[in-house]
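Query structure, 134 tokens:
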């Protein structure tokens, strides 16, 4: 008697094949170098990405500090923590004001970081745009 082939083979549909290829492309190393337009887009996007990250961080930290101050001023959190309740409201207002100021600084931080990053990458952007416009 001959050997029987007991293997099982399954073929995926065209839709599944396309999905498999799309997933595989994410993990394959790209051998082709970036073209100048891709570099230009990446550099331009990096400016706002850094500015967004910085301003969001400042805003979130400010909002957390503001919330802490509001909790001290408006609740009995100071009694739970064991400190004197008479000082809780003024301290809470002070902490809340600091948090409010930090939250208000989020947009100026965004503008500052954007301006600084644009100045930093301006020579490279100008060089690339000159090459692309020729």
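Result returned for the query:
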């Amino acid at each position: 008697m001959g050997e029987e082939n007991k293997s099982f083979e399954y073929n995926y549909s065209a839709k599944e094949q396309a999905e498999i290829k799309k997933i595989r492309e994410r993990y394959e190393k790209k051998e082709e170098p970036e073209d100048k337009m891709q570099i230009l887009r990446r550099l331009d996007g990096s400016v706002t990405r850094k500015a967004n990250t910085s301003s969001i961080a400042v805003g979130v930290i400010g909002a957390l500090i503001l919330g802490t101050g509001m909790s001290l001023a408006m609740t009995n959190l100071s009694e739970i923590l064991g400190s004197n309740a008479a000082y809780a409201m003024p301290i809470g207002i002070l902490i809340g004001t600091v948090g409010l100021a930090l939250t208000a600084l989020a947009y100026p931080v965004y503008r500052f970081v954007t301006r600084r990053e644009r100045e930093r990458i301006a020579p490279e952007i100008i060089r690339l745009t000159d090459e692309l416009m020729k």
